[in-house]
Specification:
single chain; 123 residues
Length: 123
């Protein structure tokens, strides 16, 4: 399997897993990752749909792209990571006092972005 295809499967798999955890257990994983609880029922519903549903859909799209359009999948992953990373950095700077998970996620996102850039150069 080529690096670009492997990368789409890896990022797609992680994204599907992340999505499923928030679709089915949003309270548990939100507290585990952030240390916080939802202030309202609507907040839980929104996290379930946005973190869960959107991530699940994105991961499935990346799986589809691994068989049908690798460049589109890598581009989608690139755009998503290129938006997530600065938003997380802004949160770290503006909101302050993050837990270690926020730094772990940032590191994984940066490494993933670099891998996607490398894969796009090879494709």
């Amino acid at each position: 399997m080529s690096l670009p295809k492997y990368l789409l499967w890896f990022i797609g798999g992680f994204t599907v897993f992340f999505g499923l955890t928030f679709v089915f257990m949003p309270h548990y994983f939100f507290e585990m990752y952030t240390g916080g609880k939802f202030p309202t029922t609507s907040a839980a519903i929104d996290v379930r749909s946005t973190y869960g549903g959107f991530s699940l859909g994105m991961g499935l799209f990346l799986f589809w792209c691994s068989k049908n359009n690798i460049r589109a999948g890598l581009t989608a992953a690139l755009l998503a990571l290129a938006c997530i990373i600065p938003a997380r950095i802004l949160g770290l700077l503006v909101d302050g006092s993050p837990n270690n998970n926020m730094f772990l996620f940032l590191g994984l996102e940066v490494v993933s972005l670099l891998a996607v850039l490398l894969a796009l150069r090879k494709k």
